[in-house]
Amino acid sequence: MKDMFGMMKKVQEMQSKLGAVQAELDEMEVSGQSGGGLVSVTMTVKGLTKAVAIDDSLLKAEEKDILEDLLVAALNDARAKGDKLMADKMGALTAGLPIPPGMKLF
Question: Which residue, 14, 50, 64, 99, is most buried by CB atoms nearer than 10 A?
Answer without folding.
Answer: 14
